[in-house]
Structures are given as structure tokens and as C-alpha cells.
Design brief:
The protein has about 350 residues and is of the alpha/beta class. It has a domain of about 210 residues: Rossmann fold (3-Layer(aba) Sandwich), CATH 3.40.50. Helices cover about 35% and strands about 15% of the residues. Helix 1 links the parallel strand 1 and strand 2. Helix 1 packs across helix 7, helix 3 runs parallel beside helix 5 and helix 4 runs parallel beside helix 5. The protein is elongated.
């Protein structure tokens, strides 16, 4: 089996690729703009010469589509070029590769958009609540495209929806960053513009009791590999939430930031109509995803995942020590699987 893999240099993709190569011994062709096979998912035929494209399709028996533009600041048109048109181009190659070529598409749990409360079903794909960011909308449109393709060509597709992916291991220089590490970099004692010596009560426009669904990337990789191997062969898109069963209180994240700034108290005040200069500055310095996703209290159905991977233990909750480590504000904390293998 030869796997075509897109997005090999990303935070998730690099780890999935390593596991496919080292743990499973698979033959993989990595499509990326930087190395391996020079290509571009946003362009027709993946920007490959016709002969190369044909040979790639002929040897490909499975596709893992992980490539995406994850910018929260980019315009919808810019994001569609990679996330929607790019998905269409990858599906075209899978179609050319033949009926037996199995597609695994990496989506996101945040296709649920602005929905703040309740449980999101694995089968749910609804744009009526609207979206917090153009990124969410582009990934929604890509997933809708995948569903339509699976039905049109009578093909099975595995759709994996991870939430925020984090790690308690300290990244090597130059490695892709995850959302919590971005918070840590912007709020540490030598942070990227975070006010030095910040003290006192600072009100933040975040409701009390809100949560973030963040899951250890090491768990997500193991879950994804097993789901892809065990997903049903019947036609259609088979969707799985790769999320944490226990959402992380935003309060833990704020306490980790406070630990780097003695005397600072970050208060979840809901709507702040009269921010003072210090509050405005801190709100501007904290990453955008916190304001987009830090107002949620929803959870996610996991019944499909649990039915297919009962041998993979749930990840432990993200406690204060793990959150500090994920921000880079404490010693590294590693995640261990049920088998006792540390990853």
C-alpha cells in the first residue's frame, strides 16, 4: 500500500507521518511545497507535471489529506484556495487512483461554528449557527464537499474532526507550534509584547465557566491511525470526533498566565463595556483563538470513536501542571498510552 500524505510539515501532520512510517512501516509519498514531492494542493493536478501526476495516481492506494491553511486572520477567499479547492484537487486524484483508494480527510471539530452549548453529533454538519472565523467556514465547506464526493462516487471516506491539539512536551526549535504554546509565547515573562510587570485585576471579555476542548496530540494520532484502519468500508463519509471527553476550563489557562506575572489577576467578566488601557492592551496581545473559542461550553459526541477504538484509553484531563507545560511555563509533561508506552 502506498499512501499519499498532504500536510506533512504541520503540527499534526508531521506526527501522523512519523507514526505511519515508523510505527506502521507504511510506504508514504508526502506532498508538500517544501520537500519530498514538490506540489501544491491549491492548484489543479496538485501542480505536478502530467506524467508525475499519472504515476502518483497509479501507485496511490490510500490518501491522508491533512494539508490546510489554519490562519484565523486570513480572508475566506484566501482560505478557500487551500482548504476547499485543495480538498477538491486531492479528491480528484483519489478518483483517478481508482475505487479501492481509501480517503482519510482531516477536518476539525470547529465546523460546528458559533454553536456555544449542547452536544455536537458526529453526523452533524450544520451551518445555521454561522461561524466564528472564515477558517471554520472553509473547513465546513471542505467537509461538505467530501460528503458529496463520497456519495457521488459511491466511495467510503473517513472524516476525522480533532479539537485544539496540544502537547505537554517542549517543542524543538523550528517545530510547528500548537495553540497553547502560542499563548505561552505571548504571555511569558519575556513574552511577545505582553506588558512587563502587569499587575492587578484585569477584566477579560470571557464568560465564567467557559471551556476549551483541547486534546493531547499524542492521543489524537493514535486514535486517528486506528480509526482510519477500522472505519467502515460502506460508501459515504464516516465522521469521528477526535476530542477530549473532558473539556478544559479556560480558568486553568488564565491561572497559568497569572503564574508568570505575580500580582496579576485575570477575571472572566463576560461583557466588558468600559475597558481601561491595560485591559485593552492585554486583550489585544492575547491570541485570537482565545476570544473565538473561549466562550464555548459545548461538548462532542464520541460514540463512533469509542465503538471502533475501545482498546485506546481516554486521555487524562488537562490539569494545571499540564496546562503550564503546554504553555511552556513548566516542566514537560508526557502522555502515556494504556500499554505504558510513552509517546
Amino acid at each position: 500500500m502506498s499512501i499519499l500524505f498532504t500536510g506533512a510539515t504541520g503540527f499534526l501532520g508531521s506526527r501522523l507521518l512519523y507514526s505511519l512510517l515508523v510505527e506502521e512501516g507504511r510506504e508514504v509519498t508526502a506532498l508538500d511545497r517544501l520537500h519530498c514531492l514538490s506540489g501544491d494542493v491549491s492548484r489543479p493536478r496538485l501542480a505536478l507535471p502530467p506524467a508525475h501526476y499519472r504515476r502518483l495516481a497509479e501507485r496511490t492506494t490510500a490518501v491522508w489529506h491533512s494539508a490546510a491553511d489554519i490562519s484565523l486572520a486570513a480572508s475566506l477567499d484566501a482560505l478557500r484556495a487551500t482548504n476547499v479547492a485543495g480538498t477538491a484537487h486531492v479528491l480528484e486524484l483519489a478518483e483517478y487512483a481508482g475505487q479501492d483508494c481509501r480517503v482519510t480527510h482531516i477536518s476539525t471539530a470547529f465546523v460546528a461554528g458559533r454553536r456555544r452549548d449542547g452536544r455536537v453529533a458526529e453526523t452533524e454538519l450544520d451551518d445555521s449557527p454561522g461561524f466564528e472565523t472564515p477558517y471554520e467556514q472553509s473547513k465546513f465547506e471542505a467537509e461538505r464537499l467530501v460528503r458529496a464526493w463520497a456519495l457521488r462516487w459511491n466511495r467510503p471516506v473517513t472524516v476525522l474532526r480533532p479539537s485544539l491539539l496540544v502537547t505537554g512536551s517542549h517543542p524543538e526549535e523550528g517545530e510547528p507550534q500548537h495553540p497553547f504554546s502560542v499563548v505561552g509565547r505571548s504571555t511569558g515573562s519575556s513574552g511577545d509584547g505582553f506588558p512587563e510587570g502587569a499587575k492587578g485585576r484585569v477584566r477579560l471579555p470571557l464568560p465564567p465557566q467557559c471551556t476549551l476542548n483541547a486534546v493531547q496530540v499524542e492521543y489524537a494520532v493514535q486514535a486517528m491511525l486506528r480509526l482510519a484502519a477500522r472505519a467502515p468500508d460502506r460508501p459515504g463519509a464516516h465522521t469521528f470526533h477526535v476530542v477530549h471527553p473532558v473539556a478544559t476550563p479556560v480558568r486553568l489557562l488564565l491561572e497559568a498566565v497569572e503564574s508568570r506575572h505575580p500580582g496579576l489577576r485575570l477575571e472572566q467578566a463576560g461583557h466588558v463595556t468600559d475597558p481601561d488601557p491595560a485591559e485593552s492592551l492585554i486583550v489585544a496581545r492575547l491570541p485570537a483563538f482565545l476570544w473565538r473559542y473561549g466562550r464555548q461550553r459545548r461538548d462532542y459526541e464520541r460514540s463512533g470513536l469509542l465503538s471502533l477504538v475501545p482498546d485506546l484509553a481516554d486521555p487524562p484531563p488537562l490539569d494545571a501542571a499540564y496546562v503550564r507545560a503546554a504553555l511552556g511555563h513548566g516542566p514537560a509533561v508526557r502522555y502515556a498510552t494504556r500499554t505504558g508506552v510513552t509517546v
